[in-house]
Amino acid sequence: MRGATYWPKEIKQKDRVSPKTGAIRRLDRLRSILRDLDPVVANRAWREVGDALQAITDRYSP
């Protein structure tokens, strides 16, 4: 059962350090999931993630 609890535990630990390190671990998890998918689906998912991150960056930029 270690595999099922690894990512949630890892992300919680990194969130305690800082929001940025928590976000980096979440992207690591997403990367590990997307590497096994069809490249077209993976590319679309990364494009959507990039668009969402850009929207957040634009919202909080002065």
Describe this structure in words.
- The protein is mainly α.
- The chain has one domain (2-60).
- The chain is 87% helix and 0% strand.
- It has helices at 2-17, 19-34, 39-60.
- The longest helix is centred in the C-terminal third of the chain and has 22 residues, at 39-60.
- It is flat.
- The protein starts with a helix and ends with a helix.
- The mean pLDDT is 88.
- Note the total helix count: 3
Helix and strand content put the structural class at: mainly alpha
N-to-C order of helices and strands: HHH
What characteristic shape results from the CA principal axes? flat
List keywords for this structure.
mainly alpha; 0% strand; 62 residues
Describe the structure in brief.
The chain is mainly alpha-helical and 62 residues long. The chain has one domain (2-60).
List the helices and strands and how they pair.
Layout: H1 2-17, H2 19-34, H3 39-60
Helix pairs in contact: 1-2
